[in-house]
Amino acid sequence: MAIEKLAYPFPWTAGNFVDSIRNGYRTCVAMLEGEIVGYSVLLCALDEAHLLNITIAPQLQRHGLGAWLLDRTIELAGDAGATCMILEVRPSNPRARALYERRGFIQIGLRKGYYPNGAFRREDAVVMRLSW
Ligand SMILES: CC(C)(COP(=O)(O)OP(=O)(O)OC[C@H]1O[C@@H](n2cnc3c(N)ncnc32)[C@H](O)[C@@H]1OP(=O)(O)O)[C@@H](O)C(=O)NCCC(=O)NCCS
């Protein structure tokens, strides 16, 4: 939660994490010198994996950890039997979009007004997919 609150203007709540774990969603945790520095949350259903959250601690971003964690998360999805991964990303998040594009994700759609964006405002989500 400490990382989540620093990393997002609209962070997940502790309840979102607890519900994900209770529901059996898969998670990856990146550790550095015994400390959690990043994590991802993945919902696998049949042959499709949905990346719900991927976050690196702000002070450690831009050192390749996000790319590393994304690769581990894709491996986890493959081990669970998935043959593709779907995710949503804000158009205003160029770093995350660039990371996904470099890994081979392509845009497959747009969800209108998907994200909260302050009082009474919403932001669209770019929907991306990687198949293997
Ligand atoms: C998106 C996110 C997970 C990426 O993690 P990251 O660790 O910063 O990613 P990487 O370091 O692997 O790559 C990101 C950038 O760092 C650069 N980079 C990688 N290694 C580097 C290094 N050794 N030195 C300098 N820059 C480096 C990459 O080229 C890339 O640059 P660019 O996108 O600005 O061109 C992270 O920024 C994050 O947690 N953001 C907030 C939460 C978020 O937006 N999550 C995604 C929601 S869809």
UniProtKB/TrEMBL annotation:
User: Is Acyltransferase included in the keywords of this UniProt record?
Assistant: yes
What EC number(s) does its UniProt record assign? 2.3.1.266
Q: Which positions are annotated as binding acetyl-CoA? A: N93
One GO MF term: protein-N-terminal-alanine acetyltransferase activity
Q: Where is the active site?
A: E88 (proton acceptor), Y100 (proton donor)
**Can you give the residue ranges of the N-acetyltransferase domain?**
1-132
Question: Origin, by domain of life?
Answer: Bacteria
Please verify whether the record's keywords include Acyltransferase. yes
Q: Which UniProt keywords apply?
A: Acyltransferase, Cytoplasm, Ribonucleoprotein, Ribosomal protein, Transferase
Catalysed reaction, written as an equation: N-terminal L-alanyl-[ribosomal protein bS18] + acetyl-CoA = N-terminal N(alpha)-acetyl-L-alanyl-[ribosomal protein bS18] + CoA + H(+)
Q: Which GO terms describe its cellular component?
A: cytoplasm; ribosome
Uppermost EC category:
transferase
Which compartments is it annotated to reside in? Cytoplasm
Its function? Acetylates the N-terminal alanine of ribosomal protein bS18.
Family named by the database record: Belongs to the acetyltransferase family. RimI subfamily.
- The name on file for this protein is [Ribosomal protein bS18]-alanine N-acetyltransferase
Give the species. Derxia gummosa DSM 723
Name the lineage. Bacteria, Pseudomonadati, Pseudomonadota, Betaproteobacteria, Burkholderiales
